[in-house]
Every structure is written in structure tokens, then in C-alpha cells.
Amino acid sequence: MRSRFDEQLALLHQELITMGALCERAIALSARALEEGTTERAGEVFEHSAKIERKERDIEALCLRLLLQQQPVAKDLRVISAALKMVTDMERIGDNSGDIAEIVGKGHITPAHDKLQIGEMALATVKMVTESIDAFVKNDVDLAREVIAYDDVVDGHFNRIKKALIEVLRSCDDGEYALDLLMIAKYLERMGDHAVNIAHWVLFSITGKK
Questions:
Q1: pTM for the structure as a whole
Q2: In sequence order, what DSSP letters do the residues of the chain get, joined into one string?
Q3: Structural domains present in the chain
């Protein structure tokens, strides 16, 4: 019975890794669409968002089977409960990637526009998402705490971009571009917050405390 349970837990870990990879790819594609200033990659982002939603449902179903059939206790119960919470944040990361692609699709941001280090902010966000999932799979408390601390880096990017865009708005040079880029930066900042949530659930799954 325990061996079967361990097999299903291993499958849960693998499914979370797959979902995390989809999230990483969705963020990368949305950032590339922004950098290119075209709508060509928007469809790919939406496809990944849909895959993330399906994966969320698959993982939820697996977690429910583990809860109903195996009746886990103590740490195993915390792991499954944390996974159920984590996939919600991961699904929202997929949604935010789709939101960015939708904004790029409006056409207000062109290749000629200064992207104000949005690419660096996207890379920092991907790092947080990747390492939060790695922390869960590896049962790594230190890595989870590093993700939480690294949120300051993403917040720093957001604050710098926001200040720069305020100056653009003051000049009234290109208001639609500035507002769209500010929204994109905000979505990336939210993704960082979701990665922090995942890291907190990792801590809970290991220690019983967030």
C-alpha cells in the first residue's frame, strides 16, 4: 500500500514539474512577444495558458485521489494540501502571461519602444517560479526562503520601471505605450508574488509552518 502511495506522490512531483515548466515557457513567450512588439507569439502564450489550466485540473484530481484512497496523515497530508494550493498560484501565473500577451496584441508597444529592462524583470520572475517548484520537489527549505527573499529583486525592477514610466506619462509623449508597459510590469510583479506563495506552501509542507 505504501509503495503505491509513494508512486503516486512521485507522479504528483512530476506533474508539478511539468506544470512549472509550462509556466516558465508562458512567461518567456510573453516576454518575447513584448520584446518583438508583435502579436505572432500571443497565440502560443494562450495555448500554454490553456495547457496550464488543464494541468491544474489533472493535479487537483490526483491530489483528491490521494486524499480519498490513501487517507494520508502528518507530513504526507501537508504535502498534498500544499500541492493543491500551489497549483492555484501556478494557474494564475499562466493567466498573467496571457494578460501580457493580450496587452501586446493591442499594438501600442512596437519594437522601437524602450522596454525599460522588462526583459530582465521577466528573467527574474522565471527564476522565482522555477526555484519555488524546485524547492518543493527537493524538500529544500533554504531554497524556498531564497525565493521569498528574491522577491525584493523583482519588486526593485518594478519600482524602477514604474518611475521611468511616470516620466514618460508626464511628457505625454506616448501615454498608451506607458500605461500598457506599466500593466505588464505589474503582471510580472504579481507572478513574483505567486512564486512567493508557492515557496510559503513549500515551507508549510516541510515544517508545518508558513
A1: 0.90
A2: -HHHHHHHHHHHHHHHHHHHHHHHHHHHHHHHHHHHT-STTHHHHHHHHHHHHHHHHHHHHHHHHIIIII---HHHHHHHHHHHHHHHHHHHHHHHHHHHHHHHTTS-S-TTS--TTHHHHHHHHHHHHHHHHHHHHHT-HHHHHHHHHHHHHHHHHHHHHHHHHHHHHHHTS-HHHHHHHHHHHHHHHHHHHHHHHHHHHHHHHHHS--
A3: 2-207 (1.20.58.220)
